[in-house]
Amino acid sequence: xxxxxxxxxxxxxxxxxxxxxxxxxxxxxxxxxxxxxxxxxxxxxxxxxxxxxxxxxxxxxxxxxxxxxxxxxxxxxxxxxxxxxxxxxxxxxxxxxxxxxxxxxxxxxxxxxxxxxxxxxxxxxxxxxxxxxxxxxxxxxxxxxxxxxxxxxxxxxxxxxxxxxxxxxxxxxxxxxxxxxxxxxxxxxxxxxxxxxxxxxxxxxxxxxxxxxxxxxxxxxxxxxxxxxxxxxxxxxxxxxxxxxxxxxxxxxxxxxxxxxxxxxxxxxxxxxxxxxxxxxxxxxxxxxxxxxxxxxxxxxxxxxxxxxxxxxxxxxxxxxxxxxxxxxxxx
Length: 332
Hints:
38 strands, UDP N-Acetylglucosamine Acyltransferase, domain 1
């Protein structure tokens, strides 16, 4: 199943489940992807442990399976033992509302009280689960999975095999107001949202429509729960956006960018390909490709680490300065 090599044991011991290396019991298979867990190889009760081909083990108390990537191998095994996912049967529920002009392909599942807007197209084998709303003139690709209670506003385009989790809102108005005296006049947002294929969007994510053109999530990007993506943002392919991150309007992220949890990016800047923004960082200036940024305001990680070290020494330095002042005063 994982293309591994068995080391120790005869391969006949039955495996009935999966678990972490500390929690594993008899019959479970587990994995080790971080060398700091090596001591648990002598303590685990697991039937076997998946390790990397490079892991050095003098004497393990359990059979090992050496694989190219222990984490990926374990994921395949976990899927094998996982309970079946929710069964969305093809067909349109009696309580669903399909507006005139909407086109639903063969094998689509539309759940109870779901709404499909006028002129919307839904590709083959896609799922629109209970209580979800898809507005007018949307285009939903094939094998798309839209979980319950998702809202997708008008003219949104979603690519094949995209997954959207519950509570997410796609295509809401962008946050834009023009000062008018002491009042704030709403700026209309007439654009749309384009989500390419193989994207996954977590629960309670908000993706605003473009002001004029599009907000664009490119293929393979994975967005965690509780992320805010503002109007006209572009997120490049295969990027990872972790929970509670916020990306302000008209910012552009390159390919394979990682935005860690609770990071914030101001509007109208670029983040280069393969850049990493650390947790809680506040990005106020453009970020070059492959940079690793940390802190608020965000700085290159080595510079920020030095600043953290200096700050940690402040109490000691304050004490030294106070003592020097005292000595100087005594001499004076």
